[in-house]
Specification:
This protein has three helices and no strands. By secondary structure, it is mainly α. The chain is elongated, with a radius of gyration of 17 Å. The chain starts with a helix and ends with a helix.
Length: 69
Amino acid sequence: ILGQIVAIGEAYIAENVGLTATNQLRADLMLHCLRLDPVFYTTHTPGELIERVDGDVHKLSNFFSRLML
């Protein structure tokens, strides 16, 4: 039972660290996107930007959560 409690604690901490890091990364990427030149937005669609920001951060989150476990 103690081993299961420790495993749950480890998983919780890993998820919490991953969520904190990815949320900060999303915020940093959004600030970067907001500071881009308006010409950039004529060549990139909103869906493309959302997929890049959210999709790439999600992939990093999965990578780091698997790395921690």
